Amino acid sequence: MQKTNKFLKIGNKEFKSRLLVGTGKYSSLEVMQKSLINTKCEIVTVAVRRVQGLEHGHKGLMESIDWKRIWMLPNTAGCSNAEEAIRIARLGRELAKLAGQETNNFVKLEVIPDKKYLLPDPIGTLKAAEQLVKEGFTVLPYINSDPLIAKQLEEIGCATVMPLGSPIGSAQGIRNAANIAMIIAESRIPIIIDAGIGVPSEAAQALEMGADGVLINSAIALAENPILMAQAFSKATEAGRDGYLSGRLKENPLASPSSPLDGVISNN
Ligand SMILES: CC(=O)[C@@H](O)[C@H](O)COP(=O)(O)O
Questions:
Q1: What is the ipTM, given to two decimal places?
Q2: Mean pLDDT of 22-51
Q3: Sign of torsion, CA 37 215 123 2?
Q4: Is the residue at 199 inside a domain?
Q5: pLDDT tens, 94-117?
């Protein structure tokens, strides 16, 4: 289904920016702040567990983001089963309240038992999502690029699905484009490509394919110059969306001359 909405609509909120960003792995809070500004993002995800535990890089994080301008997307990173994820989602809602976002019921649902590839558990994700939807959360589940689980999550009331391009932090880009294309074609909710994007052109690729947004963390935070890379991702996301809306030239197995051949003076 072609989605031509001007804004990214998640639940009942609209966003101009289609680039969502993470807050982990930055060399300092100052670099993170400057990078976030350059992304022009309006949604920032925070790991509830890491913020609460004041883990490395997370002390002072809450205070360093302008929550009047940025919509918080609490995430359940570090949860390996549905029960933990539900508990952390509830804490995330309280965190958003503390930041002054009384009506924020968003949660980026991550249920990740696999420490090596950080792949999400589809059964645990579905179970947690069902409960969180019942509790009134706007649920954005992180999933493998599986069209069936994407559809099931849509049917139980998730606000988006967030299929991975490749494993978190791997910078391998979009390794599963065919499956992602199926998810995009079949969904009636926004699709946000989350994880594994390595360079801005891959963010553009996701948007060109018809994804509604991308979520980037490592490729910005761990770039040699994160502040400049943030800007590059912002431009790439916008370019990819414009490319999608413009309607691409269809691929052709044959060449097609750039100038008309009719009326050309013959050699004979
Ligand atoms: C911050 C966050 O939510 C990550 O778990 C997310 O999946 C981003 O992945 P990359 O770090 O690969 O961009």
A1: 0.96
A2: 93
A3: positive
A4: yes
A5: 999 999 999 999 999 999 999 999
For ligand 1, atom 2, the nearest C-alpha belongs to 22
Relative to the CA of 77, which ligand 1 atom is closest?
5
CATH classification at residue 70: 3.20.20.70
- The closest alpha carbon to 211, from 189, 233, 230, belongs to 189
Among 215, 216, 220, 229, the mutation site with the greatest number of ligand 1 atoms within 8 A of its Cβ is 215
Q: Looking at the domain assignment, is residue 180 inside a domain?
A: yes
Say how many Å lie between the CA of residue 23 and the centre of ligand 1.
9
What's the pLDDT at 262? 73
Residue 169 annotated as lining a ligand binding site: yes
Angle between helices 226-246 and 29-39 (to 10 degrees): 20
Q: 106 in a domain, yes or no?
A: yes
Of 89, 98, 168, 174, whose CA–CA distance to 124 is shortest?
A: 89
pLDDT for 49: 84
Q: Which residue has better confidence, 5 or 183?
A: 183
In a domain, 5, yes or no: no
Q: Which residue has the tokens 């301008």?
A: 69
Burial of residue 248 (CB within 10 Å: 0-12, 13-18, 19+) is: exposed
Q: Domain containing 232: what range?
A: 14-246
- pLDDT value, residue 4: 80
Domain count for the chain, please give it: 1
Q: Is 144 assigned a ligand-binding role in the annotation?
A: no
Per residue in 155-184, pLDDT tens? 999 999 999 999 999 999 999 999 999 999
